[in-house]
Every structure is written in C-alpha cells, then in structure tokens.
Amino acid sequence: MHLRRGGGGPVGEAGGVPPSRQRSALLATDLQDLSLLRRAAPALVAMVVVSLADYLSGQDRYLAPLMVVVPSVAALTLRPRELLAVCFLGLIALLGLSRYDRVDNLADSRFLYGAMVSYVAVTALSAGIAELRMRRAAAFAVVSSVAEAAQRALLRQPEPVVGPLRLAVRYVSAADAARIGGDLYSVLDTPYGTRVLVGDVRGKGLGAVQTAAVVLGAFREAAYDEESLPAVAGRIEASVHRHVPDGEFTTAVFAGFREPGSVDLLHLGHVPPLRVHADGSSEAVDFPDPWVPLGLGHLVAGRPSPTAVPFGPQDVLVLCTDGVVEARGARDGEFYPLAERAGPLVRDGWRSLTHLDAAVAGLYADLLAHTGGELGDDALLLLVTRPGPDAAG
C-alpha cells in the first residue's frame, strides 16, 4: 500500500473516506469486484457435477435431490437476485433429471418432498443467508474504511520535497484487512533543520495506532520547539510515559539535516539506517552509543547522544523498519539481505525525484520477490537524499 493523502469528507462518510472508496472496499470484501460468471462458477460447477453424476449412474439411481447443494454454494458468492437466477437454472436441471429418472409425478413423495420442496426451501434460506452475508460485508467495509481514514490522517505522507530533502516512501501493513500497522514516520522542516522520524510500535492493531498517535503528535510539536534531537526524544519519551500503558515501547531513529554534508542520527533501539553511495557501495550506520526505545527511558539514567554521519549530495539514506530486514525468504527462510540488495537498487536515487521513486519501487519489489509476494509484518521503506544545488529536478 502506497499511502497517499486524501481529502476529508462530511460526517457519515466513514470518517472522511469518500463513498467511492467505501464501495470499492465493499466490493473487494464480498468478492463483488469479480465478474458475475466467476462468482457464479462454483454453483454452476456443482450443478454440472450433480447432473453428470445422476446421468452416468443410470435411471435406477435418483441423485437429482443432490441439486440442493447449488443454492448452498451460491449463497457464498452471489447476491440474492443473482442466486435466485442461478437456482432457477438448477431447478430446470432438477426437473430434467427427474424426468430422465422417471420420477416427475407430483404424487410421488420422492419427487415432491425429496426434490422440489427441499430445493425451494433451501433456495429461500440461501437467499436470506446471501442477504445477511452482504450486510455483514458492508459493515466490515465501513469499519475497514474508517480504519484506513484513521491511518491516512495519522501517517500524513510528506511531499516529495521537504526542505532540502527529497523523499520516497513505501509503507505496507501486514494487517491488510484492517489497513492498520504499527510502523510510523514523519518528516518536518523546522527552524532547526529538516527532521525525520521513523519508528516501529510494539504490537499491531488499534493499540499500536494509539501509541503511534502519541509518538507522532509529540514529535510534531517537539521538533519545532527543541533545538537538539535528544531534547526532541526526551519530550516524546515524557509523552509516551504519560499516555501509553506501561511495558509498551516504540523503537525509533531520528535524523536531523541541518548542515550540508552531514546528518545527525539518534538511535533508540531501531534498525540502523543504511547509507548508499553513488558507486553502489553501502554500509549500515554504526552507533557507538545506542539508546533504549521510547517508553523505556525511565529505566535508564542519562540521555541519548546523536551521531554525526557524513552525507553527501550523491548519497541515499535508507530508513526502514524490522518488517523489512526480518522478512523471510519463501524458499530458504533467510532474512532479507537489505545491506546487499539496497546498493545496486538505489544508488541512482540521488539523481532526481524520478530516480528516487524508481529506487524505492525497485527495492520494495525485490523485497516482495524475496518473500514470495507476502509480508509477515508491517514494512516501511523511506529513502532520503539531499541533492546539491546543481542536481536534476
């Protein structure tokens, strides 16, 4: 999921999500985004199987009543009216098979009760079940849309250019149904330089979103008020201590871009950033004085210290969460080798915004190829460059 900013909407539109997005969520949730033929295929196949079984077993075997499986299967994927149409075809097949088996006399209880009455009754019940299924899907789609709106409001995607920085982001939540994850990021242009926060909340779901809201809200205030990164982290730590349950914590990396040619990094138990050079070489930033995650600062004495790292106009800073480096391969189960793969894939990202977008897209595609197309955890990739004055747009 590549997050994009969306406009607000009136109250009642699932927390600001437009009706068109709600409808899309509903269609995907209830498989209504598939064609009618594809949704009707299971019921039609069941109809064909029963017909063949009855025909091939001969006239001395009366298997036509097995046609009652058709409305039951149709209730899983079809709308009530579509179900009735398909079941009408099943009824025609039932009458044809009964005539073939010479069991088509209304006075024959096998035909009247064993076939006709049971088929009509199951069809009516299945239509009711289909209606109930669609109502539940609609309710789930609304909840899903509200969750998406909450996350879109929480993770405000920055512009491609913030201050002197160029940015490219990919964020994917492992909880696709809820569209809520525990990874967070923010980029702000402040009086003390452009500041970046990337973090990973312990846990998932609404609890993680609540913690992320506390961390991001505190960062968006402190980044403008505090001159140093340790002071910013201290403000966030105090807010987390007040508003987040004990034992919950958030790993984080802060980056401060104040002077050209370098970046100040503050490490709080998070995945170390990766610095990629124009020749494709890369190295993980080494922190001589790492610190505990946000929410655990009261357990240690002192304050974290920032690390100054050279960062030139042809360098790309790769910030990520553990969902990237701990993503296991589909074949060998090995962790994703970010340090090995990132260099060749993102080395040209400094050239332009187009190159940077292509770099993050290529890195994310490579991550998915490594895992076989599925991620077991939330994953965030944020690429940052600080081009020189003569760089391409």
What is the count of helical runs? Answer: 10
Determine the fraction of residues in helical runs and give it as a percent range.
40-55%
Backbone shape: elongated
Structure summary, number of beta strands: 11
Structural class: alpha+beta
Query: How many angstroms does the end-to-end distance come to?
Result: 26 Å
* Rg computed from alpha carbons, rounded to a whole number of angstroms: 29 Å
Strand residue content: 15-25%
Can you give a write-up of this model?
This protein is an alpha+beta fold and 393 residues long. It folds into two domains: 19-150, no CATH class; 155-385, Phosphatase 2c, domain 1, CATH 3.60.40.10. Helices cover 44% and strands 17% of the residues. The protein is built from ten helices and eleven strands. It has helices spanning 19-29, 36-56, 69-74, 80-100, 109-154, 205-225, 229-243, 322-325, 338-346, 353-371; strands spanning 161-162, 165-172, 183-190, 193-201, 250-257, 261-268, 274-276, 282-284, 307-311, 316-320, 379-385. The protein has a six-stranded antiparallel beta sheet with strand order 1-2-11-10-7-8. Helix 1 (19-29) crosses helix 5, helix 2 packs parallel to helix 4 (80-100) and helix 9 runs antiparallel to helix 10. It is elongated. The two termini are 26 Å apart. The relative contact order is 0.10. The model is unreliable at 1-18 (pLDDT under 50). Pfam families: SpoIIE. This is PP2C family protein-serine/threonine phosphatase. Keywords: Hydrolase, Membrane, Transmembrane, Transmembrane helix. The chain crosses the membrane at residues 83-100, 112-130. It comes from Kitasatospora phosalacinea.
